[in-house]
Amino acid sequence: MVMGSLLQHLFITLSCLLLLQTLETSANQTPKSYVVYMGSSISSIGEFAELDHLRLLSTIIPSDESERLSLTHSYSHAFKGFTVMLTEKEASVLSAHNDVISIFPDPILQLHTTRSWDFLASESGTGSDHRSPPVSSDIIIGIIDTGIWPELPSFDDTSIGKIPSRWRGVCMEGFDFKKSNCNRKLIGARYYDIQDDWMESKSVRNNTHRPGPKGSPRDTVGHGTHTASTAAGTAVANASYFGLATGTARGGSPSSRLAIYNACTLSGCSGGTILKAMDDAIRDGVDIISISIGMSSIFQSDFLSDPIAIGALHADKMGVMVVCSGGNDGPDPATVVNTAPWIFTVAASSIDRAFVSNVVLGDGRVFKGSAINFSNFTRLKTYPIAIGGQVAAPSTPFSEASNCYPGSLDVKKVAGKIIVCTDTDPMVSRRRKKLVAEFARAKGMILIDGFEKDSPFDSGTFPFTDVRDNDGAQILKYINSTKNPTATILPTVDVKGIRPAPVVAFFSFRGPGGITETILKPDITAPGVSILAAIMPENETGTIPPGNKPSKFGLRTGTSMACPHVSGAAAFLKSLHPGWTPSMIKSALMTTATISNNVGMPIPSSSNAFASPHEMGAGEINPSRALHPGLVYETTKTDYLYFLCFYGYKEKIIQAITSTNFSCPSGSSEDLISGLNYPSISIASLNGHQTVTRTVTNVGPKNSTYIAKIASPIGLVVTVLPEKLVFVKGYPRASFSVTFLNKSATKGYKFGSVLWSDGLHFVRTVFAVNVV
Fold it and tell me: The Inhibitor I9 domain covers which part of the protein (predicted)?
């Protein structure tokens, strides 16, 4: 019996292994979308490039599967490559081809203002707002996102001059978008076969021809419209979100032009499509590319397997600045994405405005809540209130009902009551909890949430609010100690002049960089909490207060909203300093950034501690000060190539990227990255001492003398040589070295700064040093 049982067990095990092997083999033979990157583009253009790519593809696609001999995308302007359906084996074979630098599965990237610009101006300390040229400028911002809703007043071109002659883009028509939807403000719009791409990522094409595009540049999500208007929206007076956040809505550079690249859906973005949009944007003639999109911080790729990093490297080479959000995976450390040094990486912070929806208990006590709701509740009437666990569905654990899990509430017990939900399980979002309560016919919902309160949730007309843990404990105590507890949730009011502000947002990613810690990320911080900007009009039931039409403006939160603030600020600088390179603009914004809040203290993080450069980079953007930075760091194309050498890429690969005979320095190592001419300093491992050098360019008065001042933590000795930089006419550049010596510092990251000043300009360079 024992032997028979063993044989039976062995037979089952072998059968399972064979089945798994069969399934694995089958999966490996199923084509899926791959991005093939082939370096710099120097000769092949358009159809010729596509023919070259098809010839290469024909060497690995079996002759009996010729229907697969087609490309999803072909890249040919700023760089070479294509996106294509391949099996794992075919991808492996193709990766060995001499012309292929990298090949990787097409990744799925995620989508990561009335008061905000006024707040930035008030924080500048200059007493004046920053203004773009009065009529129009020729700066073009390319927005790669979910499209545009062109009819909104934020994209009106009444006071804008003719389209720049250098513009080479198009205004593509779609089933709901006409060429006439473009104008002198919205000068270009493209879309991609997004739906087809997503279908192809899941199955093999079974037809012999590629379907034609069936999309449109029109935004059906709202994300792209919001980011576009934040960057460069025309000023619109009396803007609001159903009476909240009233004021003049405008972008950071209202005089700039917009070019739209609809490359994403609500579900995310194909990396191959993002790469195609970047190639098109560079060819079209944009000056700045704004991308509020990124890969997951959990599955980060190296720099030559990341579509945004690849596209941005070639964009910078051609003088186009790329600004990206860093992700919403905070507050855990090492969650920043889009960390390549040639990308301007943006964190998110709050402004001095809050959206308050208070809870009034039956005993008269009032607790401050945070939300955006347009309920019709008043103080005059209260409703029964219960904890989710007290109205649980049959056989549902108390903890699940308290967290308002889907299906956890008993409709008969819930109907007509305000339900209190907790947030001890982050897997169930606020939106889902709200829908659970609403579906169970709750009168309203109070969420006890110690963190996300700083990021108000929009519940439409459903009464909802977030309260802090301490206030939540008092509400629970009231419910448990009262025979017939009641409460009400008041509709939202906006409160200005909140202090302290700014605060680094709880959700905003944190450094250090997970791929390399030798470049300090994030670079900068900008407003990203409850930003009012143009939005796709929504007609969904429950989102519009009775008697109102769909709003032309909406409030959104995320590093996605912070990114276009920086894109707009960069366009503003570019319009007044047309000769500045992307690295000069980046440096100007970083070295002049604000590091104190509106009560004169250092900017705090969401935990109320002072924010470190791993949370806010150099500080919060200050466009007015950045106009006259005094000195700038010019990070050259050679610096970026050295970065690739030091990071470990082979010389042959870098030559293919640049189409040059570039040679890596001897003795390359990742530690040397810290010495590149970047506007901040990061040392991943300090054991003893280390010296880095920097070179600055004088863009202020030709005859200037700058003196260094050091702010360093206890135990870390920082010296600068020379301590004085003297500039005279004809000699605009000067170099200096910074030496870090661990004398008695404890282990871990230490932060500080080197400040150069001539009495009028203050050029601040932050540093992060990991003592080991």
Answer: 33-112
